[in-house]
Amino acid sequence: MREIVFTRRSGWIPSVIREAGELKLMLGAGADANHEPRTFTFSIGEAHLAVIREDLARHLLLWSAVLPLCDAAGTRGPLEENAAVALLDPILLSAPADVDALFQRIRWDRGRLIAHGADIDLLERGQVCAAMRAATETSNGKRAQEYHADRRRAERGAVLGPLDAAVLRYTGQYLHGATVPKRMPDAVDPALLPEVMRVIATAEQACAGMRIGLDPRRGKRATDKRAWDRMATTVDAAVRRAHPELVDDAVRTVSFLMCSEAADHSRSTPMEDDEEASGDRADFGESARKTILSFTDDKGVEKKWNQDNPRTATAEFWEFVGDRSAADNEVFTIEDEEMGEGIQLHFYADSIARITTVHEGNGESDPEYRVEYSLVAGISGYRNLVSAFVRGGCASLEQHGSWMSDNAEFERARQQRDAK
After folding, report:
1. In angstroms, rounded to a whole number, what is the distance separating the alpha carbons of residues 73 and 29?
2. d(CA 313, CA 292)
3. Which end of the chain is more exposed for a tag (fewer CB within 10 A), N or C?
4. Among 262, 257, 261, 234, which Cα is nearest to 173's?
5. Could you tell me the strand order of the sheet in which 37-43 lies?
6. 273-302: pLDDT as tens digits
């Protein structure tokens, strides 16, 4: 039979229970193999209960010291009860100076104390008892998260000034640099918000007119890495030039914000509009436009497009690529059977082949084809080539790159490019 003897308002602070007539401290910490919270108990005495009731600071200090023992128990191991019991007298019944000395020798959960209002400067100086004079039962987890974020920055030599911190709060990346940035003006001190907005305006002006299109080779929502890097470099340079006082973390979060917003815009833009924005709708004349096309991948899957389709051929093709592209499926073909020509995209090699029929086959001979190869510079290069072919066939590709009919010559060119 378990009876709760003492508990505080915060459900996570350890409670005192009586079990089979014995006083015990009970706390939840960690999780088992099924991700269910684990509960630990160990015996205490009446004198310990009296201090726990009356002294919130000592109660929290004990909790902070016991938590590492719970962590050591892992998902299924037992609590090292003797070690937990050995902490009771030194933390609950000793003089403040002795408690401070103990905390210099043992492991303890600093973040737990900070979340409950501990003075960070005093904690850093080893004065744990004095640091807990302002302790509260209620927890502020964000305060502990910010402390740990500052510690991680300090370990790599990054120290934030007021504007740096404000910029990171504006983008929501103060706590976690991997968080997708967004605009959060309410998170910034109103006195610093105008300065933050000047930094953001500098970034917006630097990347005005730039875009980050989709890269269907890597999936339906993937974006063009080259375009991302180009925008990030442009924004970084402009912000550093206009605001040299900002640290790297602040500059990076601004460029990350600009790139993320540009990428999100592309993901939410219909493919036809995306082509319009990227200039893919080059005009090769109505008479040159394709009327029926066949799309295939390296797995033999085929999709047909004809001019009655309400969507453009390029939009349909890139959607086909986004649906089908994978690590083992990186060769895609567009064929115009009527004209006897097509292109084959080799995503694994950043190259393309254009194929034209020289002689039609008949009962006595096989058809004869001319195959020419060219290197491709990223997804933007592929987009231009596909659009050009759809609009004007193989003849329209002449102005896009150097075409090589000799396979050995092409391989040398590819190796030279990859070696750079």
Report:
1. 10
2. 9
3. C
4. 257
5. 2-6, 15-19, 22-31, 37-43
6. 555 555 544 444 444 567 899 999 999 999
Strands (E), 166-232: none
18-32 burial string, b = 16+ CB within 10 Å, else e? eeeeebbbbbebbee
Residue 394's closest CA among 357, 346, 348? 357
DSSP 329: B
The three state secondary structure string of 365-411 is CCCEEEEEEEECCHHHHHHHHHHHHHHHCHHHHCCCCCCECCHHHHH
Query: What is the helix (H) or strand (E) element at residue 19, kind and residue range?
Result: strand 15-19
Question: Residue 293's beta-bridge partner residues?
Answer: 305
Q: ∠252-257-263 over CA atoms, to 5°?
A: 120
Residue 340 near residue 356, CB atoms below 8 Å:
yes
Q: Which residues pair with 332 in a beta bridge?
A: 345
3-state class of 220 per DSSP?
Answer: coil
pLDDT tens per residue, range 300-315: 999 999 989 999 999 9
Residues in the chain: 420
What Cα–Cα distance (Å) separates residue 233 from each residue in 167, 206, 210, 255? 18, 10, 12, 8
Q: Which residue has the tokens 């509960």?
A: 39
